[in-house]
Amino acid sequence: MLKRYHGPRLETRFKDDHANPPRHGQIMKHYENCLILRLRMPVSDDLHPRSFLTKITKYERVVDIPNSHSILEDLLPASVLLAQNQQVGIYNFTNPGAISHNEVLTLFRDIVRPSFTWQNFTLEEQAKVIKAGRSNCKLDTTKLVTKLKEYGYEIPEIHTAYRRCLERMKAAGVV
To answer: Are 107 and 162 in contact (CB under 8 A)?
Structure first.
């Protein structure tokens, strides 16, 4: 059973500096019982407005750069396992590997919406039309994958995970 923490809340401890929120390491220094799961470009099976897949399918043009992604269907059960086993620390909470925007959109077109089209543009062209810069990265999931294997749970590689996600969407009639 998880022990309930009755110490000061994070909002209270760091309330004087809203412009500069604490880094994960700062939090862990004061709250050793925290589990921080770092999601990246979360994707749901239902085209929820906050899902990366929903967003990217609405863009007229995209930059084709590989990134780590979090397929929620695969990762939410993992979060429960980590919590049930009282794990603490910081985990990159993404599916292993990286996938480019073109790869995602090609899978979407091939599986869900055959008439779907998009155009690419360069980072320089993108920078001229967006308000804030974008980060592109592949996160190391070794720590997460290793820990979850201890519990008999395996997270699928991102290309496999996207294919399964899109197949579930098609089966559910989400278009």
So the answer is: yes
